[in-house]
């Protein structure tokens, strides 16, 4: 009877020890779950995610939001092409209209037309403080105007026609500008003068019933 009781006691002690071990193991497992028995494994994904988030590119910075409004209309835009000013000095402003000398609004033209026009005037005037969204009006001129056509050279004057050659070289001439004939009267001033008649005959002014042109032969 005493031996049976002793065996029962030893068996009960063994069961109690097993229960204690199981309880201690369970407590250790619960402790690790609650307080993080594997900190490296649990924090690694969080650290990787934080690093990826810090290196990810953000939205592009807004260049028009750096300065407060109102702002002065930039003076440097005068003389620039419409394309260049729209992408630089005037990019933050509201370009309401851009008129060519003909009155056509270039803002309604194809985009490549902006390179052909240069800004000569801005309204409101450069230096004026304007609020965001204020419409600017531009006046333009061609950046490279076409070369003026050369004036046509005046026509060459027609060549002067040579004077008709006299059929006979006669002298002196009468008061009417005609050649003398032998036997015609001559002037007192021609007395004693020789000459050539209209037929080429040599004549002389001498007194023959009055001063006449007479053949010299």
Protein described:
Helix content is 26%, strand content 18%. It is α+β, with helices and mostly antiparallel strands and 217 residues long. It folds into 3 domains: 1-36; 67-142, 2-Layer Sandwich (Trypsin Inhibitor V, Chain A), CATH 3.30.10; 170-217, no CATH class. A 3-stranded mixed sheet has the order 2-5-3. A 3-stranded antiparallel sheet has the order 6-7-8, with no helix packed on it. A hairpin with a 5-residue loop joins strand 6 (194-196) and strand 7 (202-207). The radius of gyration is 62 Å and the shape is rod-shaped.
Kindly list the characteristics that best describe this protein.
single chain; 217 residues; alpha+beta; Trypsin Inhibitor V, Chain A; 3 domains; 8 strands; 26% helix; disordered N terminus
Task: Provide a compact summary of the structure.
With 217 residues, this protein is of the alpha+beta class. The protein is built from three helices and eight strands; from the N terminus they run ααβαβββββββ. The strands form three sheets. It has a three-stranded mixed β-sheet.
β-strand amount: 15-25%
Task: State the end-to-end distance.
Answer: 211 Å
Number of helices: 3
Q: Main β-sheet, in a few words?
A: 3 strands, mixed
Strand/helix succession? HHEHEEEEEEE
CATH class of the largest domain: Alpha Beta
CATH arch. level architecture of the largest domain: 2-Layer Sandwich
Structural class: alpha+beta
Measured as a percent range, the helix fraction is 25-40%
Q: CATH topology of the largest domain, which one?
A: Trypsin Inhibitor V, Chain A
Shape: rod-shaped
Write down how many β-strands occur, each being a DSSP E stretch of 2 or more residues: 8
Overall average pLDDT: 77
């Amino acid at each position: 009877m005493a031996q049976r009781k002793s065996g029962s006691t030893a068996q009960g002690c063994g069961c109690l020890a097993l229960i204690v071990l199981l309880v201690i193991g369970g407590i250790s497992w619960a402790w690790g779950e609650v307080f993080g028995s594997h900190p490296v494994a649990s924090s690694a994904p969080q650290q990787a995610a934080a690093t990826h988030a810090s290196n990810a590119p953000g939205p592009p910075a807004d260049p028009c939001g750096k300065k407060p409004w109102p702002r002065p209309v930039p003076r440097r835009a005068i003389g620039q092409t419409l394309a260049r000013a729209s992408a630089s000095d005037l990019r933050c402003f509201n370009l309401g209209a851009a008129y060519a000398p003909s009155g056509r609004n270039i803002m309604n033209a194809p985009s490549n037309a902006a390179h052909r026009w240069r800004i000569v005037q801005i309204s409101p005037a450069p230096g004026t403080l304007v609020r965001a969204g204020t419409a600017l009006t531009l006046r333009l001129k061609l950046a490279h105007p076409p070369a003026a056509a050369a004036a046509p050279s005046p026509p060459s004057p027609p060549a002067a026609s040579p004077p008709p050659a006299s059929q006979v070289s006669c002298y002196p001439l009468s008061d009417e500008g005609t050649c003398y004939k032998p036997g015609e009267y001559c002037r007192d001033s021609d007395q004693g003068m020789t000459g050539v008649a209209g037929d080429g005959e040599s004549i002389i002014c001498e007194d023959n019933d009055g001063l006449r042109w007479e053949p010299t032969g």
